[in-house]
Write a sequence for this structure.
DNA sequence: TCGACGTATGAAGAGTTCTGCAGATGTGCA
DNA sequence: TGCACATCTGCAGAACTCTTCATACGTCGA
């Protein structure tokens, strides 16, 4: 199912074919791009991002997560399900409680970086608030 | 406009109020979370991500970007407009050509990291293809 | 000045995503 | 066993996103 790029055969004119070819050589596979975009997409929702920031410090149960993010518990559960499906978070069940934790090192790094960048940007542009 | 978290006054029961409060203290402002999620959201579309990966090495014109990503030129232009609006890319105009470049250090780092992680993951899970 | 070209834009339709509601599941306690 | 509780899930409506089509804009060469 790979899109064969069709560079040579289509009517698209290229301005700098060498650069295009070089870029294509460096470009990850379609599947990898889609997978990566998926991860970024998970972080692209403010609620989910807040959820993940909350989990940076350790596990929390659903109702605490709902309280932190200001979401309903249903919405929280839905969001956590998505994150779970992508193996970004994992669950530990204790009785009727469910404790979630951040379980993806790459995502943790991305969230950490984002928070750090946020603080840094705040320091640079304090007038922005 | 800060959401005052309303932790104490609402009916939501908390399992670990101390942790919740600590997490809230560390949580960036609502606006920062939304801004950060916006950036991740921009990277959350495979086409846009491809566009940005293509721009890692330097500027390219719209038609070359369209060729690299396999998008129509119209779709490419729309996507670039969005990225431009968020100051992720910038344009240099030369006659009727428009050369775009990646103009946000943070986004560049995120895309770089993602590509690196992709390659690393491929090396670990070669069976995944 | 005219036409071709590269790019930009607006509108519309298809597709996707998110939330709340209602109800289900499974656990703990009396 | 029966009830309360914490969480999960399917569904449906609302909201958003992305692409295409058609067209507009500015530039270049004849």
């Amino acid at each position: 199912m790979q899109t064969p790029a069709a560079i040579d055969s289509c009517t698209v004119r290229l301005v700098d074919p060498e650069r295009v070819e070089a870029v294509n050589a460096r470009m990850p596979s379609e599947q990898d791009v889609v997978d990566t975009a998926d991860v970024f997409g998970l972080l692209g929702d403010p609620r989910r991002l807040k959820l993940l920031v909350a989990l940076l410090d350790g596990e929390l149960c659903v109702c605490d997560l709902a309280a932190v993010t200001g979401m309903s518990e249903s919405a929280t559960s839905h969001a956590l399900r998505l994150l779970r499906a992508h193996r970004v978070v994992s669950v530990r069940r204790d009785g009727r409680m469910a404790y979630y934790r951040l379980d993806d090192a790459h995502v943790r790094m991305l969230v950490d970086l984002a928070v750090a960048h946020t603080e840094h940007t705040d320091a640079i542009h304090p007038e922005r608030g």
Remarks:
- The longest strand of chain A covers residues 89-94.
- Chain A has six helices and three strands.
- The radius of gyration of chain A is 20 Å.
